[in-house]
């Protein structure tokens, strides 16, 4: 089954999953964003005729991925985050994949995250008796992110 997307077509996704060692640990309804950033560094270059200011790539910030879903009974995300809370960052750092799925269930995009760990886990507000869904937001930090084929 193919998603039928061409190289120039915009990607749409109906579900996002985090997969570790071939096992889907969590599924999400919303990708809030993927952020990669390199801080610019200013360099003054002086010649006999002029002084020029250049901006060059500087320090790379760790990539972050933020996902949101309706809270469920699953404990995998909490246990992963708890390893960080307990200071066991070596156990918490895992290479994983972020997979984006079309409505028909086919993968439309995949990102490989090296040495990722959940830096933030947020459970949204909810009033007793309300009909809204309790939302859970997770922010993952990783050493490197790479777009790979679906």
Report a brief summary of the structure.
With 150 residues, the chain is mainly beta. It has two helices and eight strands, in the order ββββααββββ.
What can you tell me about this protein's structure?
This protein is mainly beta and 150 residues long. The protein has one domain (15-148): Pnp Oxidase, Chain A. 9% of the residues lie in helices and 57% in strands. The protein has two helices and eight strands, in the order ββββααββββ. Strands 1, 2, 3, 4, 5, 6, 7 and 8 form an eight-stranded antiparallel β-sheet that branches. The protein is globular.
What descriptive keywords fit this protein?
Pnp Oxidase, Chain A, 8-stranded antiparallel β-sheet, 150 residues
> Rounded to an integer, what's the Rg over CA atoms?
20 Å
What string gives the helices and strands in order? EEEEHHEEEE
Low-confidence stretches: none
Number of helices: 2
Q: Which range best describes the helical content: under 10%, 10-25%, 25-40%, 40-55%, 55-70% or over 70%? A: under 10%
Total tally of structural domains = 1
Give the distance, in angstroms, between the N- and C-terminal Cα atoms.
Answer: 12 Å
Assign an overall shape.
globular
- At the fourth level of CATH, the homologous superfamily is Hcp1-like
CATH topology descriptor: Pnp Oxidase, Chain A
Main sheet overview = 8 strands, antiparallel
Q: What do the pLDDT scores average to?
A: 91
- What is the number of E strands? 8
- Look at the structure and give the CATH class: Mainly Beta
Strand-residue proportion: over 45%
